[in-house]
Amino acid sequence: MTRLVRRQGWVAGLLVLFVVLFVITRLIQPGYGSGDFGSLVRAVLPYAFAVAAQTIVVIAGGIDLSVGAMMALTSVTAASMMDGASEEYALFVVPFVLTMGLVLGAVNGMLIVVTRVPDIVVTLATLFVLQGAALLVLGAPGGAVAEWLRATIVGTVSIPGLPGISAWIPKALVLLVVCLCIIWIPLKRSKLGLSIYAIGSSELAAFRSGVPVARTRIIAYALSGLFAAMGGLALTMSTGIGAPIPGPYLLASVAAVVLGGVALGGGKGGLLGPIVAVFVLRLVRTDLTLLAIDPNVTAIIEGAIMVAVVMFGAFITMRSRPS
Amino acid sequence: EAKYTIGVSNTVQGNGWREEMICAIKAQALASGEVTKLNIAHRNTDAAGQLEDIRNLISAKVNAIVVNPADPAGIMSALEEATKAGIVVVAVDQAVTEPSAYIISNNQEQYAYLGAKWLFQQLGGKGDVVYMRGAAGASADSDRDKGFKKALAEFPDVKVVHEVFTGWQQDQGKQQILDFIATGSPFNGIWTSGIDNVIVDALVESQTPLVPVVGADNAGFVGQLNSVEGLVGAAVTNPGSIGGAGVTLALQILNGKKPAEQTVLVEPQLWENATEEGKAKLKSVADPSLSPEWPVSISIPEWTTYTKDQIIACKGPGE
Amino acid sequence: MTTNPLLDATGVVKTYGAVVALRNASLSVLPGEVHALMGANGAGKSTLVKILTGAIRADAGHILIRGEARDVRSPADARRAGLLPVYQEPSLIPDLDVASNLRLTDTPVEPFRAWVRELGIPDLDIRETARDIPLAVLRVLDLARALAVEPDVLLLDEMTAALPANLAEKVLEVVRSQGDSGRSVIFISHRFVEISALCDRATVLRDGETVGVVAIEPGVEERIVEMMLGARIEKTRVAARQASQAASPGDSRPRLGVANLRVGTKLNDVSFDLANGEVAGIVALEGQGQDELLAALAGSIRPSGGTIEVDGKPVKFAHPADAIRAGIAYVPGDRTEALTMQRSVRENVALPFSSALRNWGPINMAQERSRVVSAIERLQIDTRAQREVQRLSGGNQQKVTIARWIAAEAQTILCFDPTRGIDVGTKQEIYKLLRELADQGKSVLFYTSELEEVQRVCDRVIVIFGGRVVDVFPVELADEPALMRAAYGLPCGAKEDVGILADIHSSPVAKP
Amino acid sequence: MSNAATVSQPVPFGRRLKRFMADRPLIPLIILLVMLVVILQILRPGIVNERWLANTVKFAIPLAILAGCQTMTMLTGGIDLSVGTVATMSAFIMATQVVNHDPAVAILIALVPAVLIGLVNGIGVGVFRVHPLIMTLGTSLIGTGCLQVYQRTVIASGAKIPPFLAWLGTGLTYGVPNALLLFVPIAVLIVFTLRRTGFGRLLYAVGDNEGAARLSGVRYWQVITALYVISSVLAGVTGLLYIGLIKAPSLSLAEPLVLPSVAAAVIGGTSIFGGRGGYTGTIIGALILTVLTTLLTILQMPEGARRILFGLIVLFVTAAYLRIIEDR
Ligand SMILES: Nc1ncnc2c1ncn2[C@@H]1O[C@H](COP(=O)(O)OP(=O)(O)OP(=O)(O)O)[C@@H](O)[C@H]1O
Ligand SMILES: Nc1ncnc2c1ncn2[C@@H]1O[C@H](COP(=O)(O)OP(=O)(O)OP(=O)(O)O)[C@@H](O)[C@H]1O
Ligand SMILES: [Mg+2]
Ligand SMILES: [Mg+2]
């Protein structure tokens, strides 16, 4: 019971932190409005998918170092397929790339299960493999994206009669919420979801409870691959190209997972926390830019915030632990 | 009468060239006297991250943005938004595809072409060359590759015996060339994409006969061209001070002096030590007090007005 | 009987590298039978259970279920075949709540709740996370979860070992009723009382080999012990202790003085003394505060009030290291809490030697070796698999936790159920050991869930109920009925029989 | 009863060999290393010469020391991602400070941030119980930021590599790299510490079961703080050696070594979950990675294919090694 309260408390705390930061942002830049919020969400998009991909394997007791490389590969694949192709062709590209992510993620999982090499090493190896594959697909940044795809994350939804509110609902946010919920909510309610938490919490106990450990692990990695592919598509949608060199998504995803209250080690946490953590981290970045902080100092600030928040979390856990 | 706020977006941090670019931007902003504040987004990220940074700069309501693009096409949408918001956009170092943006750039293709051509001529149009590229998948690298290939096409008897990506990392470059030397394969010249002084070091350390080396105008390499016994080589300029030029261009536009062309190319120069005249030039530009990773061309005549002290102090307006 | 066996395993072999866990085990269980699986520590009982239930794979052997050869590859397979184990270690997923754990195993909730109540836990919150539930309750939940799906064969590996008397008694009742209703139970325990009260037949394993199957009847214990221990048999039975044997507390300063100790809401105003050369037994039902008492004395948790004195000097322990410096060592009940499972026996035993900052330097290997070896010998630890403690059988692991403090020559040892899951031969050795320690002037505080042990080992009995010391009396007065009454918080003089006593005395077999 | 006989039959040769190697995990690792070298020699006959050996050793040493940091932290269930930043900082600071100071003073100044970062890591992990991955990632970000700020103050002071560091980093004596003068004592010290000292024992114990270590009187924070400080100082020393080898101070000098250092420790048989492993395997792991890098540099193929091959070989080597030493 207390555990539940504590966990939800952490997410609530993050939400409060986000709101406070938002208010601070308005103070720094009084003109900061709905359009800027839309920019924020678009910036969040690839990070959010990367974090979702990381969250699911961390809950399953693993870690996926290949998230960034997977995004790069799916992104260049999508961009190069759509290059010079018709708008309709993209209707085929999107499911193709998503399937590719799912399959490659499953391969990650299978390699872990079959070789019994620790996940951190397997995914380190696949990081190189996927990166290499991305370079073979596109030797340099390039490719293109279908216009309608690009349009799905630009602008806001229009709710008739509520222009004031709909201005604050960017399409990118809708896309993000839909994509995450469509997978996460059914998963969380299913036995499969329980199994994923179970193998993360105690593999032995899960096995003894009749959980098909290997299959569950493979599925967790497959879903991670799927989220990463969404991240890759998001990259292509926002930049209009594919870049074979992975961006800073790996470390960012691990950091946000931990900030979001998911224990590295598995079995605990949810998706909401890490996603809110991503919003917080992006907004911090915005504030640093708005404040015209010396760029060399921003790295110090970002690192310090990360350490301080996690230390604070550790501190309150220590305090609330029965003496 | 300082009145402008200028935003800067750059996506590689911790590399001497980019650091010099940032310092040049700060120094020029200070020297111009027209800039009240610089908002600098300077970190390691990709095109999507740069989109974020540019949009943040738009939110910050800067008057102009000087951007070193992570990718020419990838940041188009944000640049378009910026111009729509009335912000002057100047891309430095590389071109961008957004038509409304102004470009003042080093000519990467020309950079590679110039150095490679000199090297091939130096070899008498014949021989085996080691081709040490930058980072695989980076757009500057692929532009340079075009220039290199162009020169190569002009010299059919020159062969690339070894092609490798240094990732613009000193340690990787050094290990790679040492590995190659160990294979015992003969080679007559080395073209590098700016990871140059460690290559010369490796040749000296392993007591291999020195072959002509082409690099960039980094302080360390220029020093070597002047001092290493028997080293023949050429440094091709690739001034990091282009950032300062970007600021100047942005201010000119803000003040209503639009350039005739959207794109202004700063042509690279080649300094070699094969001729007496070249040696004299190299001696004059050498600057041992600079960090070895910094290009020695710390200013661009007509485009930058700061002093050496100012760029080295690396302080912008209000700092 | 002519009925066909429900489960029939023959020639089961399992080796772990050089260690042969099972060399030729067989087991045949009839429908409706409660079948005991017996053997000394490391005989291979748990290994056999794991093989039968698909948790590990055998190297060789045939397993027939209802006369059909079935390849049980995983616990899920076993479940489908009607075989349900309760392993020696808890199997609930620690980070899931009980309800989710049930859902994961497709266990119906209502029958589960009913069984939990039946097993003596009236107020379970199934929203509670497994990690926060005490070990004894977890074991019961494991059992209830197995019972709820009405398995044909229930395999209970030392189910009662970690249970206090009141819960153990319920478990026995329930198991008995399973047998009566036609289901089979394979029951592993080192407690003869339970075996004789419950089982119809017993299969005895020695060194991985089935050495006999006997029907349980009065007087069979001696034979089982003979079969179990083989050449190891030794008549080391210590007679119930007499008061005259107790070391006289002699000098006035107690080794350990506890006054008005309080820990949160669990422990209230506990006061007692422990003398040098004394073994004091703590008797309590599950969860009466004994865990907190020992943990506080060991410096593991901080008391919220009261004083602790060692040799007359007041002490405050902020960390177990402080207690250890004061000569107080703690052997927890759960061996997984005390051992570094991937390390060798030697490193485990030698661990306290290096703990203090000043001992971080080079180790004197020869000296360490001799200390470790003598401790290992003293406890007769089976060191065939000593490179990693996790490969030792449960009982041998338990011995390592004690050997550590013998080697470290702790002055005062706090034992929480140290004979949990230990075979009869070893138990005798441990009793002897504790007595010897006391004779050397050391003092022992000893909580046990087996009341019989109190009489064998202790000089004095401290009874705790509801977080308070309700009684302290010398061992002469401590016959089992008296202890039981005290443990249930009844005054010493009361006469009516309570709980398990009734069952034991009315059971067909007298206790050995 | 026939099954009992099966067990007492002589164990087949293959199994005996496997058991032999399982008991001596270094042997299969060394075999893997030799195999890679042989492949290299086949692909480029003549490459395996004295000079190549010296180069390989020179480049493997910094990696091996950083992998030593990973080995020790991994034994406790941790990881130290700040080693790259720490090594870079000490190298850069030394190279810029030596312009105005005596080399010995410059080196001392350069090691100060190493100690500080180690201390912060240790306190964060040991006292506040922050996950080591996050803690060291955070301090590494902070360290990088500080280095950026610092480098601006020394732009004009230039940089120098003290001759003895260059001698140590690149020099050879009778064909043997001088770096071994530094590495051999460090390696011996690490191996000895892990096997024969109380501190080493505690690293294993804490990583295996922290609760058990606590009950044995071990103070977690002491062990962890000491560990991360040691790890950081080793990383700092590596930075000094590395700058002697590369001779070009840059702000990302040792960053590329971080992931390989983790890989080297894992290939060498150290468990990232703590409690098992050792340093000798790690050293071979570092050599394997270095040889592999050479192999891929020498092979002429597209960069993408090179990376794919690298990943596949790392995976294969680790899997094969685990298969061999696993005895269950
Ligand atoms: N994973 C393993 N690796 C190596 N040896 C093992 C492993 N598991 C068990 N063994 C060995 O197999 C033998 C039988 O162990 P098992 O746990 O079945 O004994 P047990 O009869 O249940 O003993 P106890 O009563 O002490 O629990 C022991 O010698 C033990 O050391
Ligand atoms: N640090 C250690 N941890 C665990 N076991 C050890 C350790 N060192 C040695 N042993 C084992 O303990 C036993 C005795 O070790 P000891 O060092 O006293 O003997 P030794 O003959 O010197 O052995 P060696 O020199 O091979 O380590 C051997 O089985 C050895 O493998
Ligand atoms: Mg057992
Ligand atoms: Mg020895």
Give a structural overview.
- The complex is a heterotetramer of chains A (323), B (319), C (512) and D (328).
- Chain A is 75% helix and 0% strand.
- Chain A is mainly α.
- Chain A has a domain at 37-248.
- With 319 residues, chain B is an alpha/beta fold.
- Chain B has 11 helices and 12 strands.
- In chain B, helix 8 links the parallel strand 9 and strand 10.
- In chain B, helix 1 runs parallel beside helix 9, helix 4 (108-122) packs parallel to helix 5 (139-154) and helix 8 packs across helix 10 (276-285).
- The radius of gyration of chain B is 20 Å and the shape is globular.
- Chain B starts with a strand and ends in a 6-residue tail after the last helix.
- The model of chain B has no long low-confidence stretch (mean pLDDT 89).
- Chain C has 3 domains: 7-229, P-loop containing nucleotide triphosphate hydrolases (Rossmann fold), CATH 3.40.50; 256-327 and 411-488, 3-Layer(aba) Sandwich (Rossmann fold), CATH 3.40.50.300; 341-401, no CATH class.
- Chain C is built from 18 helices and 20 strands.
- In chain C, a hairpin with a 2-residue loop joins strand 1 (7-16) and strand 2 (19-29).
- Chain C is globular, with a radius of gyration of 23 Å.
- The two termini of chain C are 28 Å apart.
- Chain D is mainly α and 328 residues long.
- Chain D has one domain (52-325): ABC transporter involved in vitamin B12 uptake, BtuC.
- A two-stranded antiparallel ribbon of chain D has the order 1-2.
- In chain D, strand 1 and strand 2 (176-177) form a beta hairpin.
- In chain D, helix 4 (50-75) packs antiparallel against helix 12 (220-246), helix 5 (83-97) packs across helix 12 (220-246) and helix 8 crosses helix 12 (220-246).
- Chain D starts with a helix and ends with a helix.
- Chains A and C meet through helix 9 and helix 10 of A and helix 2 and helix 3 of C.
- The complex binds adenosine-5'-triphosphate (2 copies) and magnesium ion (2 copies).
- Residues 16, 19, 21, 39, 41-47, 384-385, 391-396, 421 of chain C line the site of one adenosine-5'-triphosphate (ATP).
- Chain C: Keywords: ATP-binding, Cell membrane, Membrane, Nucleotide-binding, Repeat, Sugar transport, Translocase, Transport.
- Chain C: It comes from Mesorhizobium wenxiniae.
- Chain C: One of its GO terms (molecular function) is ATP hydrolysis activity.
